[in-house]
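Most newcomers find our protein records easier to grasp once they have seen one. Read left to right, the backbone structure tokens trace the chain's path through space. Once this layout is familiar, the rest of the handout is easier to follow. The record below serves as our worked example for the rest of this section:


***
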Amino acid sequence: MTKPIPSARQPLAGLEVVELSNMITCSLAAQTMAAQGANVIKVEPPVGGDQMRPLGTQKSGVSGFFHNCNRGKQSLAIDLKSDAGVEAVKKLAANADILLHNYRPGVMDRIGLSSAVLRKINPQLIYVAVSGFGTQGPMADFPAFDHVIQGMAGFTDLQAPDDNRFDFIRTFICDKVTAYTVAQAATAALLARATTGEGQHIDISMLHACIAFMWPDGMMHRTLKDDDRFTMSPGSEYFQTINYSDGAVAVAPLRDNHWEALLPMLGYPELLGTAPYNSVPARMTNMREVTQVLKNPRLDIGVEAAMKVLVAADVPCAPCVQRDHLESSEQIAAIGALETYVTRAMGKLTVPTPPVQFEGAPASQAEPSPLLGQHSRSILAELGWNNDAIDEMISSGAVAETPLP
């Protein structure tokens, strides 16, 4: 079969990606590559598969959570502790461009699928190993999920309210930040390979990726170290919504003229021209005091009236939209951020469209996510196993196969 050819809108067409992973980091990274044209084979345990499969609202044994990270892939459900599992991954790696996994450090080495082994088979392979805490240090072997990385990377402190109790950002932000870091690194390595002709090994830890993500603004107050620095509040103290009885408005009033419109709207006209509201340096060094007027508006004018005032003054603003109302947002619809389609196994679905519009053209990823082992037989047949051998592996439990309903 002729491989697809890369194009402006499908820049990764023709690339083969092998994903051995659990949960979000590598799954979302590989789905991002699939949206850009790559062929992705997801290798899962034959019993249960990826732990995302049953988590949350589901149909036909596949959750919306799993679907949102695995659209457009094939699933090979095979036991990597079996000889057949190791052999299958070696055969897949022999023809792959990228292999990514998020097993703990040392696991792939122990089962015979290390970077050195697979890159000896295929020197052009880009092998991406994702860990939680990195490959060195006292926590290298610790299990890592988003929650624990949020704690270690400073996110739970970033979310701390005034009573200094740690709190989570209530989304898997560390998993997703790492996923996009993985996707960027893998495609950068493809560019390097185009020059060198060789693949490479890449290590990425969730902890490192998330510290780098948080640092630019979250640690702006700890970046400069000389004693003569002029200290200002960290960017995290600038985040505050204006809450009204009918909803809330998100604002980012950065300039002096923004506050000239904002203070009267909030019911504080007497503060116009007074410190610390009258200049950027004054506000940025006293953000805890400044945000009190945002937290406690004297006038409850409502979201619609507030938006009119803010828009007229060109203050960056938007109404706060409840998650259950995102699908009815006029602006979200205008940019085509969501698409609804039907799949055979899961029925009607609504998911985000790919956010990158190559050539400025809207993109779609209206693809099914695979059932556990849905493609096991076809993948193994392509790798050289005959039907009798595949049947035997299924009977022994080394391979799982789930046909479409």
